[in-house]
Amino acid sequence: MLTVLRNRAYRHLFTAQVVALVGTGLATVALSLLAYDLAGRNASAVLGTALAIKMVAYVAVAPLAAALAERVPRRALLVAMDLIRAGVAVGLPFVDRVWQVYLMVFLLQAASAAFTPTFQATIPEVLPAERDYTRALSLSRLAYDLESLFSPALAAALLTVVPYGWLFGGTAVGFLGSAALVVSTVLPKPAPVEREGGVYAKAAFGTRLFRATPRLRALLALDLAVAAAGAIVFVDTVVVVRDHFHRPAGAVSLALGAYGAGSMLTALLLPRLLARTGDRTVMLPAGYALPAVLAGVAALTATAPSGWSWTGLLVGWALIGAASSAVLTPGGRVVRRSAADADLPAAFAAQFSLSHGCWLLTYPLAGWLAAGVGLPVTALLLGLVALAAALAATTLWPATDPDRLDHLHTDLPAGHPHLSGARPTPAGAWRHGHHYVIDQHHHHWPRVSPTH
Predict the structure, then answer these.
(1) Closest alpha carbon to 67 in 343, 338, 355
(2) pLDDT digits (tens, 9 = 90+) for 263-316
(3) Where would I find the H helices in 191-278?
(4) Which of 226, 263, 334, 411 could form a disulfide with 325 if both were Cys (CB 3.0 to 4.6 A apart)?
(5) Can you give the CATH number for the domain in which 324 is found?
């Protein structure tokens, strides 16, 4: 897996990602402490609102940022977003009103919503070979999981010697380091974009791409399954551990660590597994595993706590992490396969926006249901959401899903460059086959049999 780090451009980009993630993790801890200082016992409400603002920024800003990425050099955009995030981090220690927290969080996450899809779209251009790109996706998944484990530990160590406000300084250093690494990288020149329309039409293209491509609709359904299970982990772990199992605060970290361990182990195994099987073969079973595990969680939390049920919960969290990683890691391969090179920024921005829309739905559900009807019912209901999503993905994603599709063109004139090699039909259309994606010449998915 580490062989892809021999590529200098990717090595610098991956290091930039890791450095920025560590800074983000420090900011998460510091923001929690800042909210407590400002709101006291209402800190959870402040953080919940900030999390909702984060998701709204992700959903709303990412498609517009993709349209902007077509007009601005990609490296300049990445560096600018890092500098904005660093500036926000520097300003956070001086915030003394809750509404200022909300404003700064929106600015920070809006910059992230522009940075992340652009970064994701750059990786397949730096690593065009599918084997290398798969390894890069697994490394990226590992980076996210390690950040969730390492950053809180680093923050705890730093807080023994400095006030929490200094953690925002560490965040700024992380983003500045990321910007420096991106500046030092020579990025491939992206393919020219030929789409018509203004910035809003271009921003909407990624969503249209998902709506028109069967495997991308299935990917979105699987994202909903991951969000349904993940919301239980991220929202309700503290309640499960403290109120049901009556474990100390440190056990919360242990439970979240089990989730991260399952995710990391799967990310390590996926490159070899995907080399032998297809994305669909890995992702759909993982999607079905999520509701099965949630049913087990419902049973565990409906019974009196014991040593075996605590062990069962840790295993369940690890399985949710493993299944989520088995869906999320190959997701980049599915997006890459489904878009032209010039449209990758729009495709990744749409995936980023739509997938976070799923979390925007499941986060409050996990919180409100747990408070209103209890943990067992919450796990069952979100398990039903995950099951429905997995069934939808199976229906939407054809079992036979080749890249090359035979199709007709009825709207292109004879002699058009795209019709080179096409065969005329008696009805006056043109037939040919190639790697099929939705673009300026293909607006709908063909209803014809594939050719091999």
Answers:
(1) 343
(2) 889 988 998 898 888 899 999 999 999 999 999 999 999 988 888 999 999 999
(3) 199-212, 214-239, 250-276
(4) 263
(5) 1.20.1250.20
